[in-house]
């Protein structure tokens, strides 16, 4: 009957999990909270900026001619796919709809529209140049556009829209420098953080590549969106496989120790309840559960399982043990919760989720171990079979404490001597994206000349129009700096949305229809063109003179709509026009130039410096929170143990384990990140459990033997679950796994050296 009640409880929790939990894998959840306008701008660019939507594709596996043909076919397929708003392989400007839009509005957008460009002499000279272009490789395109655009306004616009640097052209499409890969750039409709939509875009590319007949691995796909999709798959795979492996390994260990399915169920019940309650609490508090949080939830097994194991092993043959250990059990739970408080109040939403999961999971698991497990056991305590450990005789002495103290002091000295070199300050290394993924993206990005936004010129205004007008006034400055070599190129939204005054001036520069027709007739003298060949040109100029100014709405449904959405944003009660900058030679001098030219309305935003500052601020805040957590733990220990001396004896080996674990990681070449701090907080909670169990080992040999067996089982389950996590391909989970597995072993060793751990028996059972 009791098992039936527990089964009904699990069914209810499973229903709640299935109905309410929404899993997401937005990597920006593991970025620090923003406190300044620049930081908010950085996160916005990472989540939904122009670069976040950019997907780079490299085709390989055939000779260059075939790759060029494959590139053209792929570009055609993707251009008509709903997952993409823009696709280019260097052979075309963009979609036909965009070309027609730019052609229709070229006289409002082209900076070379001036009255002198439409005189008879200027038109004659221009038409002569067009004749020369007929013999060039692009002569076919020139001939097709000539009747409508003899002055080349569309070509001028094209030059403004292409990147500052481009790959080499081979057979009319982009290739890498070695001619082995055909390159394409695509812009997804969905933002980069939407891993589900990005996965669909990646799948569409792979589906379109499949029939192209390329060998081996035919396509390399990179970019933030592709990373989001791949990270989602990797995290999901790690959570399933590594979590499954750790659960199976722990169950196998429990089956060996207890030799009873009922006993294994007794241990598993508090753990499962704790994880389920923790996940539901995260969903309730944050509105979703990050995939990494779920992966971490599986590792909570290694910590939550300590409590039911401690209860069962201590209760084996000792009916009064539960009352004796209740205070220690409660203190272990509370101190673990206190160690996770720093996570719950973290500036990283992802880390805050881990903190809430840990706190709720541990409280529920501890409470279930204290009250539910004895109720389910109904007086039938299992027989406990000892782990096959070697016979160890070890007692805490002045010498062992001295050795532990010397090792700790040496670790502190080593860390102090190398500080701050071992802090991980690069925000890129804090993302779930692996180093291999980022290296591949950097290689393709370098080949493509694709934007890797590190510097932005942010122009502010009270309205969208004001911000764009100020950004437009910056263009001559940027052109001058570009000609001086101070920067390689730029991309400004003001080229697509010129101010109304500028557009009016360009329309006013267009001659009246009769005057233009007379100038054109004069210009055609001596040239081999029919008199009526340029009627479309005359019609377009006539229509342009009466058209309304170009607005953002005109770009709706074109690839440039998403670009404008990313580069013209509203933030903190003002509008920002963002100009991306490439190849700035001297950022400080360039910032000074911008400040002087714009009277402070434009500022240089160094996203790399901002990201480093965010990490530095968070590291400082994390250390402060850890100190507060440690103080709270010390207070709990003093109150719970009713002695400053006993509290110090318990706390000392735990803190020493943190220092030694950090020193070992640094010695192995690891840079300590906020995720290692997370793991060290978990180590603190685990170490406190071990120290408390040892501190209250009992008053006779039988009780102390049970304590030792409980500790052996606890450390084994912890090392298994977190040791498996060390094989994760996700940097966040791997950092936590390695650190906690190492820290757990050090915690037990130092607690034994400080508090004492007499021999671990190899007896087969600990029986009544």
Please explain how this structure is put together:
By secondary structure, the chain is α+β, with helices and mostly antiparallel strands. It has a domain at 228-422 and 611-766. It is built from 29 helices and 15 strands. Strands 10, 11, 12, 13 and 14 form a five-stranded antiparallel sheet that branches. Strands 3-6-2-7 form a four-stranded antiparallel sheet, sandwiched between helices. The protein has a two-stranded parallel sheet with strand order 1-8. It is elongated and about 115 Å long. Mean pLDDT is 82; it is low at 758-768.
Structural class determined from secondary elements: alpha+beta
Strand content: 5-15%
N→C terminal distance? 26 Å
Number of helices: 29
- Biggest beta sheet summary: 5 strands, antiparallel
Please estimate the helix content: 55-70%
Q: Whole-number radius of gyration?
A: 34 Å
3D shape:
elongated
Quick check: average pLDDT?
82
InterPro entries: MMPL_dom, Mycobact_MmpL
Subcellular location: Cell membrane
Protein name: Membrane transport protein MMPL domain-containing protein
Domain Membrane transport protein MMPL: 194-296
